[in-house]
Amino acid sequence: MIVLELTVLLIVGVVVVVGMTKVAGPIASAYGERLRIGSNQASPAKLREKIELLEAEVSGLREEVKQLRETAEFATRLLEASAGGEAGGRDEPGGELRQGRPGSA
């Protein structure tokens, strides 16, 4: 009888320990993460400095995008002009025929 009681007590103890680790483990992990994040918070002066650096970089990126857009528009105009000249035999769409082409009068 004592062996049965000890076995039941052992099983209950194992279930309780496993249950506590399953519940308390994630809670302890979340608490530790919160403590780690709380200790790494920057001061307002550092945050302002980071924001200013980001704003400067965004301004630079805007300028680069503007230049890339202008370059792409220029390239598109060149391609359209050359495609229009080859396909229709005209310098520009709606323009006059080129002089001196073979077969033209």
Structure description:
By secondary structure, this protein is mostly helical. The protein has two domains: 9-41; 43-89. The chain has two helices and no strands. It has helices spanning 2-39, 44-88. The longest helix is centred in the middle third of the chain and has 45 residues, at 44-88. The mean pLDDT is 80.
Ordered list of secondary-structure elements with their pairings:
Layout: H1 2-39, H2 44-88
What tags apply to this protein structure?
mainly alpha
Order of helices and strands: HH
What count of structural domains? 2
| Anisotropy-based shape | elongated
Helical amount among residues, as a percent range? over 70%
Task: Provide mean pLDDT, rounded.
Answer: 80
First-last Cα distance: 121 Å
Overall structural class, as computed from helix and strand content, comes to mainly alpha
Discrete helix count = 2
The total count of strands amounts to: 0
Largest sheet: none
**Strand-residue proportion:** under 5%
- Low-pLDDT residue spans: none
Rounded to the nearest angstrom, the radius of gyration is 38 Å
